[in-house]
Amino acid sequence: AGYGIENVFSQIHIDKYKKANLHISLDGSGSMSGSKWGSAIEMTVAIVKAANYTQNINVQVSVRVTDRGSKNEAPMVLNVFDSRKNNIKHLTTFFSGFNPSSMTPEGLCFEAMFRKGQFMASDSEMDSYFLNVSDGQPGCGDYCGVRAQTHTAKWINKMKNELSIKVLSFWITAPTTNKEEDKTLTYSKLVQQFGSSGDGQAFRSMYGKDASVVDSSNAIMIAKELNKKFMARA
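RESULT FIELD:
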């Protein structure tokens, strides 16, 4: 040193990231069956596997359903996985035996989960995320239309405002292409069309202006969006 080669010593850069908690909530209604549900499973398992290789990301997975045996199809939340106490086989075993076949209770489930303290709030040490994947408007008995949309928005906003949870929500559609090279272009068009549609506007009124749409053949893009959030430095 001292001869104009100041960088002769190795320099080590350490990037620090906050801890993260992710709650994945899946729509278990009948319309999700088939390719949509298969893609939701693939995306969820991929995220859980990736988080398993880190030391600072916890993941919970729940499924929103209704009790087909009850008179009014009572809303139910199936809490199927928590990385703090379950291994991934616990999750895959559930998925292998579950088939979506119920109604869409949405905000009714969110309210119950909020009131029972199932969501973790963000704090100075941890960022909390809520990821919703669904394919339709709320519909469960007389719980539907604008009333249900407004109620769902109320509890999503409570998550954001009272618990400082970052909400990501995706409307999943049937596949529009099977060609790998077309997926990015198709996704871009899909987002543009969704933003101007009545369904898209209603969906964003519930989940926020950043809520978007994803083709079930390209649902892994959800994981990529999450990764961008996680990689924001503390």
